[in-house]
Design a protein that fits this description.
alpha+beta; DNA polymerase, domain 1; Cytidine Deaminase, domain 2; 2 domains; five-stranded mixed beta sheet
Length: 233
């Protein structure tokens, strides 16, 4: 057993975290910092290694009860409480992050958000993403559903919920059931009409994303009308 204080200073977990950042540390080193000290005959690193051996992975360790944690030699009441508190905070942070509205500042992020939902539609579906001033999603507003190759979109329907929700900007999205996301003349015309309507209402139309399916010749399964140069009125 090697005590942490016997290690060269640059190899001790706390000092390594200060010098290299938390991401550079192994799981056992991070656990050792939480444990702070070992017990008679064992260092904090030894106890951390035994915890991971007993529980096999961090997920099981995080869900362990206080009694289960204390079943590992060297983990008393205080250490078990410290571990439980640290893992509970991490779980709460993860929930907060998952509930954080996504940033939709690139066509790729928009496609990632709606790809699976639109993949199996057999008719065109027109959706509007309502965004705040930071380009984060407020909500997805599903406007209309069309025939196999056409949809009916009116500016009144597109901007009604945007106004109610206080959206600063919108992104237009619809799917092409054929799989080819190339914009039609109708797509381009509707986009320009909605850009002009947004300008009057002071709600910016940031992009129009058309979702299709990827092929060997066309590895990207969507197009951005802004990237294609259609965003002028």
């Amino acid at each position: 057993m090697i005590r942490i204080q016997d290690l060269p200073e640059q190899e001790r977990p706390r000092e390594r975290l200060l010098a290299c950042g938390a991401d550079a540390l192994k799981d056992t080193e991070l656990l050792a910092i939480i444990l702070r000290t070992g017990t008679k005959g064992s260092s904090a690193l030894d106890v951390a290694q035994q915890l991971l051996k007993n529980f096999q992975n961090l997920g099981r360790l995080a869900s362990a009860s206080l009694d289960d944690l204390r079943s590992t030699a060297g983990v008393g009441k205080d250490k078990a409480i410290a571990l439980k508190a640290a893992f509970t905070l991490a779980q709460r942070m993860a929930r907060e992050m998952n509930n954080e509205p996504p940033m939709l500042d690139t066509p790729e992020r928009v496609a990632d958000l709606l790809r699976e939902e639109n993949r199996f539609y057999d008719v065109e579906n027109f959706q509007v993403l309502l965004l705040n001033t930071r380009r984060k999603l407020i909500k997805v507003d599903r406007i209309s559903q069309g025939t196999l190759d056409s949809i009916l979109v009116h500016p009144r329907e597109v901007f009604k919920t945007a106004i109610k929700s206080g959206a600063a900007a919108v992104i237009l999205v619809h799917n092409h059931p054929s799989g080819d996301p190339t914009p039609s003349e109708s797509d381009i015309r509707v986009t320009r009409d909605l850009i002009r309507a947004g300008q009057l209402l002071k709600i910016e139309v940031l992009d129009h994303i058309i979702l299709g399916r990827a092929t060997l010749e066309r590895p990207r399964d969507f197009v951005s009308l802004r990237e294609l140069g259609y965003f002028y009125t």
